[in-house]
Amino acid sequence: MLNLFPRPRVLPGFGLTLGFTLVYLSLIVLIPLSAVVFKTLSLTFAEFWQIVTAPRVLASYKLSFGASLLAAGINTVFGALLAWSLVRYRFPGRKLVDALVDLPFALPTAVAGIALTALYAGNGWLGKLLEPLGIKVAFTPLGVLVALVFIGLPFVVRTVQPILEDLELELEEAATCLGAQRWQIIRRVILPALTPALLTGFALAFARAVGEYGSVIFIAGNLPMVSEITPLMIITKLEQYDYTGATAIALVMLAASFILLLVINTLQGWSAASSSSAGGRKS
Amino acid sequence: MAGIAQTLHGARRHHDYQASPATREAPWVRYSVLTLALGFFALFLLLPLFTVFSEALRKGWGVYFAALVEPDALSAMRLTLLAAAIAVPLNLVFGVSAAWAIAKFEFRGKQFLITLIDLPFSVSPVVAGLIYVLVFGAQGWFGSWLSDHDIRIIFAVPGIVLATIFVTFPFIARELIPLMEAQGRDEEEAATLLGASGWQTFWRVTLPNIKWGLLYGVILCNARAMGEFGAVSVVSGHIRGMTNTLPLQVEILYNEYNFAAAFAVASLLALLALITLALKTYIEWRQTATLSPDSMEPTT
Q1: Rounded to whole angstroms, how far apart are CA atoms B46 and B274?
Q2: Among partner residues A17, A108, A210, which is closest to B100 by beta-carbon distance?
Q3: How do residues A111-170 score in pLDDT, each as one tens digit?
């Protein structure tokens, strides 16, 4: 809406709070982050390219991005089912499940890492069951996937859940009156309304998984070319005092997370717009 | 993470979806979905949580408590508490300040500013640690100046605090911005026009309105501050008894194959996570209990 007469500022404190916000943001986040760019600029492009496309680093991108995509996909399917169960069904312990869905946000990643490793190692509860079947999880890329599924689950549940709660029942009732089968309603009415939220949840889980370190390194086994994730490559370079090498890889990761941030912002905008047009009550 | 503002928005409806034929699935569909969803939940969330406590107590309570009162573990606890005690209040002041500027005033570039505040969430923790090494490390921007003045930041406590501040930076601001935007500025403007000073308006009008959202943000911020691993690991240097936080202590013990002690320390952090979730749920419940569904309707 065109606002020809903006309201005059009545409240005090604009300069103080905005000023403090900008100074604190610059000191803690922006200036230190810019160090990654400046440090990388000390390299020629050929040197930079050589570092970020070394075979071991390329293998780590493949694992990090591949496992993250797969984990986000698994989370989208099961996160949607879990959100659906929490909103639509009543079962004993529902409130407890609802509260515990956020566990991966609250549980320190190192704790999650050692717990998953203990579970899936050869002598662990699940490892003992899977190993005779020829499935090795701990210390393989499959272990990386398991850890990334763990940390990504709440993102999908928590983006889909509010949209599902806001869905107008009248849409489903109208569709039923018009003779639609239940599965048709789910596919033609509910799923389209949920799509933006599902994609947002997928992108959030993916973005988190790509940068994840703590829960992965314990279960990954960290074999060069096989189960090294990209954040681990940065740590490895740092431990060899190769700061420039570490920074070059960090710049690639920063670029990836910046692109993901833009994608997520766009998706969230779309999600908000379509949930208010697809029947969500405007507030 | 779904914020308190979103929780309020979603919490007002309690339909019995299975009562109406339009929103009901066949029982076999319902049970299959529930089995899949809850099975996945149990396998990926409950089982790891249970493992932490069962592994911690595998060798009995004696070993468990011995691992917790060991001097290195105690010093790790102190450092973890110290880092959180600095990072949370600083980010609290920042969060309130940013939310006041963004929610109560109109200015250009607001959306961009919110994106920048979100930035630490999308940066890998490892990169978060690295940037402080680049600024304050021996070869960093201020490296030679700092070593001339005998100040250590990297591989010392200040680096750990800085990394903790970075990774918990957006938590409180993110809770407060949507909440204060939803509340608008009418009440504050009325207070100001009646002659209240800026501080009076904030303490008497704004703070009571946002206190639950504020607490919510503080709890989440604190949980992350005490549990951060990747960023702190890069700047810590892992000096036992000196620069080890609880999560780093877990790693060291685990890598020494001292599993019982590692899981004992880990169980403390898991307990912290459970307390965090309990408090979070309590706040959400308080909020929905105090506000009846009708008061959530727009008034205009």
Answers
A1: 12
A2: A17
A3: 999 999 999 998 899 999 998 999 999 999 999 999 999 999 999 999 999 999 888 888
**Which of A118, A198, A216, A192 has the alpha carbon at shortest distance from A160?**
A198
Judged by CB atoms closer than 8 Å, whether chains meet at A109 and B105 is answered as no
State the number of CA atoms in the 13 A half-sphere of B69 facing the CB: 6
Tell me which amino acid residue B44 is.
F
Whether residue A211 and residue B122 make contact (CB cut-off 8 A), yes or no, is yes
Cβ–Cβ < 8 Å for A139, A251: no
Q: Which amino acid is at B105?
A: F
Nearest to B134 among A36, A100, A177 (CB): A36
Contacts of B75 (CB under 8 A, 6+ apart): B241, B242, B244
A213 shares contact with chain B (CB less than 8 Å): yes
Name the residue of chain A whose CA is nearest to B271's CA. A107
**Residue B273, Cβ density class (10 Å: 0-12 exposed, 13-18 middle, ≥19 buried):** buried
The answer on pLDDT for B289 being more than 90 is no
What's the one-letter identity of residue B11? A
**C-beta atoms surrounding A164 within 10 Å:** 18
Q: Mutate one of B179, B229, B265 to test the A interface: name it (highest A CB count within 10 A).
A: B229
Measured CA distances, B150 to A182, A232, A243, B145 (Å):
72, 31, 22, 9
Tokens of B119: 């930035």
Picking from A89, A111, A186, A242 by the largest number of B CB atoms within 10 A of its own CB, the best residue to mutate is A111
Write the CA distances from B139 to A79, B125, B133, B144, B211, integer angstroms. 45, 21, 8, 7, 44
Cβ within 8 Å, pair B37-A102:
no
Name the residue among A11, A125, A234 with its Cβ closest to that of B192.
Answer: A11
- Find the DSSP H helices in chain A: 14-25, 31-41, 45-52, 55-88, 94-100, 103-106, 109-120, 125-130, 141-166, 169-177, 182-185, 191-211, 214-220, 230-239, 243-277
Question: A213 and B126: CB-CB below 8 Å?
Answer: yes
Residues of chain A with pLDDT under 50: 1, 279-283
Residues 11-70 of A with CB under 8 A from B: 11-14, 16-18, 20-21, 24-25, 28-33, 35-36, 39
Reading the block at residue B138, the tokens are 């021996």
Q: What is the ipTM of this complex?
A: 0.89
Q: What is the tens place of the pLDDT at every residue in B264-277?
A: 999 999 999 999 99
Of residues B107, B131, B250, nearest to A33 (C-beta)? B131
